[in-house]
Amino acid sequence: MVVSRFVPGRKRVGPGIESLTVTFGDRGALIRARGLVKRYGDFEAVRGIDLDVPSGEAFGFLGPNGAGKSSAMRMIACVSPTSSGELTVLGLDPLADGSAIRARIGVCPQEDQLDVELTVRENLTVYGRYFGLSRAECRSRADELLDFVQLTDKANAKVESLSGGMKRRLTIARSLINQPDLLLLDEPTTGLDPQARHLLWDKLFRLRQQGVTLVLTTHYMDEAEQLCDRLVVMNDGRIVAEGSPTALIAQYSTREVTELRFGVGHHEQLGGKVADLAERIEVLPDRLLLYTDDGERATSEVAARGLRPDSVLVRRSTLEDVFLRLTGRSLVD
Amino acid sequence: MTTLATRVLPGLPAGFGGGKLIMRNYLVYRRNWIVFATGFLEPVFYLFSIGIGVAALVDEFVMPNGQVVEYTAFVAPALLAASAMNGAIFDSTFNIFFRLKYIKLYDAMLATPLRPWDIASGEIGWALIRGGIYSGAFLAVMTAMGLTGSWWAVLALPATLLIGYAFAGVGMALTTFMRSWQDFEFVQLTILPMFLFSATFYPLHAYPAALQWIVEITPLYRAVVLCRELVTGALTWGSVVSVAYLVAMGSAGLYLASRRLSRLLLT
Amino acid sequence: MTAASPPTAASAPAPAGRTGTLGLALRQFDYWLTVYRRTWKGSAVSSFVMPLLYLTAMGVGLGGFIDDPDAIERLGGLTYLEYIAPGLLAATVMQNAVFESTYPVMSGIKWNKVFVAMLNTPVVVPALLLANFGYIAFRMTTIAGVFIVVTAVFGLVPSVWAGLLGLLVAVLIGLAHATPVVALSGRLENDAGFAIVFRLGVMPMFLFSGAFFPVSQLPAVFEWLAYVTPLWHGVELTRMLTTGTLEAGMAAVHTGYLLLWLMTGWWLAIKTFSRRLVQ
Asked: Beta-carbon neighbour count of residue A138 at 10 Å?
């Protein structure tokens, strides 16, 4: 299986290539960062983060726009030099061995960056050549990948003619052409319709099963819950929380949330009347949120106090609740 | 209330909606004023190059009415006509194609009360304003260099507007048929030979008689004759032919462009 | 393996690691080949037809009116056709090289982002530029090749050697203009700047760098300005070859000056690309 491709300390010797010893730090982390900082002039996009992503994990960066996710990803992808701190990717130093690292990672950038004037298939074969693959190898891998992302019947179409979802799938196929050990996905499903998103999730899930290490950024909480074993929430260049989706919900939210809607303008004054019914309440212009471990009980208590909301919804807590609690409700950009 | 029927039919303009499009183009260019300002330099550079360089190598030419003109004075009005053509073609092909296919400007405009007629006339109006400013500046340069030989030269300015109208109309009509940037090679392939061979740089009699009539029916030759006769004051009936030719060409182009835009955009 | 699963790891690792710049540049060969296949028809008129039209109109048409002894003497004893043929070759190469260095480069960085995608692979900035310049050199070879063959048929190229050296000089002229413009394109935020490059750079160079008339006819200040342009040196070098008046000392000066532009531009291009794309 794919996982076995990574043997710490293995020597990789290719034709005409010096021997390259791959050594991993503790726990065989594919990515290891300590106090990682990225500065653009006076602006600090990433303000000292620590990370360990072990082989085979699906790891997510969550955070609002401008939190520093993409900057962190670009450093890991070795297309952006670190400003300070330590970073090793695949056991190598990005500053010294950027090219060698990039040879073994796949990058699916936020914008597709496809060559719109080439055909779907040419986009894959031409890209494969950058990794030093033979033409025959590029062709056969392109066919397999087109099949994998269900674009075989579009192989000879110009990229221009593809839908957004198709372009995204093609970008993912392209990022797999070198059979990467590590796949970096920057907002893989932003802008896609629900069908396209689910199809992509399915593909990413299969890759994970095959042992490919995934690192992704997203601001869709359902996506993070679906795909990630572990994630960090970033805000303002720092990591503000870390853990599995369930652990994060347990730590930063309650099991359930009761959403109460009254007439417009009533929520402020009603907030005080139900505050004691939950661990935490939140008053929004259009509804009241009661964070509690037993939503049904809170609902009956509300009724018992003679309050008649227009509507009641009891739901499970989600990562979204965690996210909003940690990064606030106000717009960032 | 604007019904679909009145929007589809080119008809007569009920008010000039094209003004809004001209305003929009003006706003875009105001931000890129340096691009606008340098736009008139190309013919001026050509004129200097001819005046300082090539003219020293070439003798005077004799006009059809017997008048003798210096080489620079012979070429300058032709450059005036050619740059009016180039500007109009550029505005009505590359720019319009970009707006039509890429930024979908006209789709957005037709979601308002504007009609295809307003778009066609607005774009051509814009091309004329821009071209008129460039031609006026070029004429001023010519006058400063002592290359305008007669008061008839004042009429060269409206003549360049007529040239711009003729080429912009046809250019825009042709643009509505273009499929990709590759097709613009055909525009190049038409414009460049006209620029070089329409008696721009030397008199018609340099060609064998069989070729002369081909040159004579090209629109740029008609434009060059018109400008040259007005600027040098050596007027003949040839200029009347030119005026009629250019009016017909522009009107046919504008009518076709408006029809085609209706078909492309309101389907 | 089922049909709908991704390729599993190959037993042999993909060649990776310390491939040299040239090796990494060669990996982009297929990309540039596809680009050429897709674009050559679209640029055929400006590359191949335009210079020949100019040559016919000016060299043959206008040249027919340039016959008095005084004019011929100004042209160094050449007919006007003989005089402008090498000038047009050099000027055409310059124009096309600058064009290849503007919009396509901005597209790679900003619109299509092909260069950005390349740098996600083992390709590094110097290798990316080497391949791009290699492509421009190839384009210039085809443009100059067609021009030289056609003019040779009309007896304007004295020998096969002159033709071959002319080809080499055309590539040199092309790259001397391409590298600094590529460096500039790596800095520009939008394509409005290109209008300035063409109107204030390319157009005056085309007209005033000795392609159409001797620069000694220019006012002194502009004459010296012409000597500073790389195109004037390219025109002179090409004219030496096609008129069989090669003079070693001046040829070395022209070649050296063009190389200076080429190397400086190359160095600047690596700097601006690194700053723009790897930051």
From this structure: 21
Domain membership of residue A133 as a residue range: 27-244
Both A226 and A268 in a single domain?
no
Partners of residue A14 in chain C, C-beta under 8 Å: 12-17
Residues in chain A: 333
SS (H, E, C) A215-253: EEEECCHHHHHHHCCEEEEEECCEEEEEECHHHHHHHHC
ipTM score of complex = 0.86
Q: Which residue of A has its CA nearest to C117?
A: A113
Nearest CA in chain B to C43: B185
Euclidean distance between CA atoms C77 and C60, whole angstroms:
17
Q: How far is C5 from chain A (nearest CA, A)?
A: 5
Q: What is the DSSP string of C58-99?
A: IIIIGGGG--SHHHHHHTTT--HHHHHHHHHHHHHHHHHHHH
Q: Cα–Cα distance between B38 and B27 in angstroms, integer?
A: 17
**Nearest-neighbour CA in chain B from C60: distance (Å):** 10
Distance CA A10, CA A21 (A): 6
Q: How many domains does chain A have?
A: 2
Residues A145 and A226 in one domain: yes
Give the contacts of A250 (CB within 8 A, at least 6 positions apart): none
pLDDT in tens, C124-156: 999 999 999 999 999 999 999 999 999 999 999
Distance of alpha carbon A138 from alpha carbon A126, whole angstroms: 8
Q: How many CB atoms lie within 10 A of CB A296?
A: 12
A225 and A262 in a single domain? The answer is: no
Say yes or no: A60 and A201 in one domain.
yes
Q: Which of A119, A22, A112, A108 is nearest to A73 (CA)?
A: A108
Contact assignment for C9 to A103 by CB distance below 8 Å? no
Domain boundaries defined on chain C: 21-277
Cβ atoms C105, C185 nearer than 8 A: yes
Angle at B72 between CA B67 and CA B73, to 5 degrees: 40
- What are the structure tokens assigned to B210, written together? 């069989």
Alpha-carbon distance B82 to A165, whole Å?
48
DSSP 8-state class, residue A80: S
Tell if the CB–CB gap between B49 and C218 is shorter than 8 Å: no
Tell me the two tokens of residue B6.
């009145």
Write the pLDDT tens digit of every residue in A77-132: 999 999 999 999 999 999 999 999 999 999 999 888 898 888 999 999 999 999 99
Same domain, A236 and A261: no
Same domain, A259 and A219: no
Contacts of B134 in chain C (CB under 8 A): none
* Among C3, C16, C113, beta carbon nearest to A14: C16
